[in-house]
Protein: Glutamate 5-kinase
Amino acid sequence: MDKSDKKRIVLKIGTNVLTKGTNNISRGKIEDIAQQIAFLKDDYEFVIVSSGAIAAAKQFVNLESNGKEINVKQALASIGQPHLMRIFQENFRELGLLTSQCLLSYSDFEKEQSKKNIVNTINVLVKNSYIPIINENDTVATDEIKFGDNDKLAALTAVLLGADLFIIATNTNGVYTKKSIAENKVETINNSTNINSLKKEVEKSISSHGTGGMFSKINAAEIAQEAMIETWIVNGLNDNFILDAIKNNANFTKITIQ
Ligand SMILES: Nc1ncnc2c1ncn2[C@@H]1O[C@H](COP(=O)(O)OP(=O)(O)O)[C@@H](O)[C@H]1O
Ligand SMILES: N[C@@H](CCC(=O)OP(=O)(O)O)C(=O)O
Structure:
């Protein structure tokens, strides 16, 4: 089964967006995302890559070392993932949207048969109006929770699925200039084709809940760009962030193809 005529968007939602910077998954944010997808569903099909499993678990349990060790993080992800999916399912169902779960790891993108299986499964899901919600399979792979690269997983997914657009929702208005951060009056780089110059603007810092930082988002955009896919880095904390970006009514970073 192939792609439909609709524009395919791969939407990556980071932990910071899902928790709105708190210690809990925000039902309000998930509802906001559902509302936007429902509004756009005649013209766009969505595949979501969502972090938040570990954050979801921390709402319910307090494991040894509070999740600092990698194997404890893996256990937390295992506990939190079904909770995360339940919250998505409940909120999306309210708006008549169907959801499904796909757990992937990097090594799946290195095997031809696995790649075919991913594409075939997701195409059947999308064709039947299910919204696939992807996360790393944290039980078998530790790449993302070690390096915070759900961004890279999302980029590989966008490339594999031939997405028309890759949107990364984070907690800033896209990529800020280094100078503006230093001067405490942040300024967004609205348009860029030049990955290397963007990398120079980005400090290798991470915010309180996410693990990847802006650097991994630029790396993800580079993977997409090499496959001729545009990346938008938008502020997912704002209501209607997808609609506003599509209407060009928001301050965000567009990384276009060269
Ligand atoms: N130049 C920059 N512009 C914007 N954010 C930056 C920049 N350099 C570093 N960052 C950091 O990257 C963070 C976003 O990445 P991350 O914490 O991994 O979020 P997420 O959970 O959305 O993946 C920002 O909150 C900010 O602290
Ligand atoms: N698989 C982990 C992903 C952690 C992660 O990469 O977080 P983020 O930097 O917010 O995308 C989880 O769901 O908690």
User: Anything to note?
Assistant: The first strand starts at residue 7 and ends at 13. The first helix runs from residue 15 to 19. Residues 7-255 form a domain with the Carbamate kinase fold (CATH 3.40.1160.10).
